Amino acid sequence: MKRRKFIQNASLSTFGIAVGTSVFASETKTSISEVSNPKSGTSGFPMVIATWNVNSSTAEAWRVLQEGNSALDAIEKGCMVEEANAEGQSVGIGGLPDRDGNVTLDACIMDSKGNYGAVVYLQHIMHPISVARKVMEDTPHVILAGKGAEQFAISEGFKPIDLLTEASKKAWEEWKKTSQYKPIINIENHDTIGMLAIDKNGDISGGCTTSGLAYKIAGRVGDSPIIGSGLFIDNEIGGATATGLGEEVLKTVGSFLIVELMRQGKTPQQACEEAIGRIIKKNPDYKDFQVGYIAVNKKGETGWYSIHDGFWVTKYQNDKNENFHSDFYDKK
Ligand code: SD4
Q1: Which segment of 15-29, 112-126, 145-159 scores lowest on mean pLDDT?
Q2: Which atom of ligand 1 is the closest one to the Cα of 212?
Q3: Protein residues with CB under 6 Å of any ligand 1 atom
Q4: Whose CA is nearest to atom 10 of ligand 1?
Q5: Atom 9, ligand 1: which residue's CA is nearest?
Q6: Rounded to a whole number, what is the largest CA-CA distance in the chain?
Q7: pLDDT band at 214 (very low <50, low <70, confident <90, very high)
Q8: Is pLDDT at 266 greater than 60 in this prediction?
Q9: What is the pLDDT of residue 192?
Q10: Ligand 1, residues 189, 224, 312, 313: which to mutate, most atoms within 8 A of Cβ?
Q11: Amino acid 219: pLDDT
């Protein structure tokens, strides 16, 4: 199979096969008029925003913020909730494996001082977001990969476990029967968690954690752990994070682009829309894959946008933990 074809198919599989549990995107078919495009939006902090319907994660991050802790602590604790959720098939334990049946995780974290840490292709460890934080805080490096990342995690006291749940193993075995993808778009599980938070001091941090594309080629790394692509924070300006087909986010350095657009005076919403526009412009075949962005600026104003219908966002701000159905480019 040619690379391009594989990527298209794999992208669809993420959104097609990893269907199931929590997201009401497919069930609650919301009409376009109900879709949210936060042009002016609310503002203020502390606050936390995340990709997909992850109310338990944002609630935990909010709790941490309410206790007066840093945005960095909120991000780590909030992401850990989804990583420990065995039902979620795109993050942490229970993540769908690669083609060989191995669950491999990518994650990164970035703080308000511009520090960054990441793990890529990490196996057997439930909380890659915490390992990423350790890489950031306890090593002179910013990215650890594969076996080395796992050894580092174990040396830091993380317990190795089997991340492949019965449900994900069954899904993989089912997939292996044909090794083909059914191109269904917009039936999406909650997917990669990208999270941005501002603490009571107005300092911004972010994190991103994922098992990546389902049934990917062994060794594949997506955008999620890569600074500037899956996540970027500049405490003077704001932050952005991504979900969707990582290859396209990587090629446009999406999260860095959004922060730089906000630096030039765009609102978070305008910046997310322009970053999606860059992907559309370069991809006549954008109908085959999904990308979604969220962003926040220094005032706590937020924005979100995706290529296709079906992207959701969770925001905890002004004492409300709310889900928003994102506006999108492809209105057909
Ligand atoms: C990746 N961006 O590995 C991740 C996958 C994802 O929603 O976000 N899915 O490409």
Answers
A1: 15-29
A2: 3
A3: 14, 90, 191-192, 210, 212-213, 222-224, 243-246
A4: 246
A5: 244
A6: 53
A7: confident
A8: yes
A9: 86
A10: 224
A11: 93
Q: Which of 14, 192, 209, 314 is catalytic?
A: 192
Contact between residue 276 and residue 326 where contact means Cβ atoms under 8 Å apart:
no
Q: Name the residue of 8, 90, 241 to mutate for ligand 1: max ligand atoms within 8 A of Cβ.
A: 90
Cα 163 to middle of ligand 1, angstroms: 18
pLDDT tens-digit series, residues 89-134: 888 888 888 999 999 999 999 999 999 999 999 999 999 999 999 9
What structural domains does the chain harbor?
43-325 (3.60.20.30)
Query: Which pLDDT does position 21 carry in this prediction?
Result: 28
pLDDT of residue 150: 98
How is residue 285 written in tokens?
């075949």
Distance 51 CA to ligand 1 centre (A): 11
The ligand 1 atom at the shortest distance from the C-alpha of residue 249 is 2
* Band (198; pLDDT cuts 50, 70, 90): very high
Question: CA 251, CA 281: separation in Å to the nearest integer?
Answer: 12
* Verdict on whether the full-model pTM lies above 0.85: yes
14 part of the active site: no
pLDDT for the residue numbered 181: 60
The span from the CA of 332 to the CA of 323, in Å, is 24
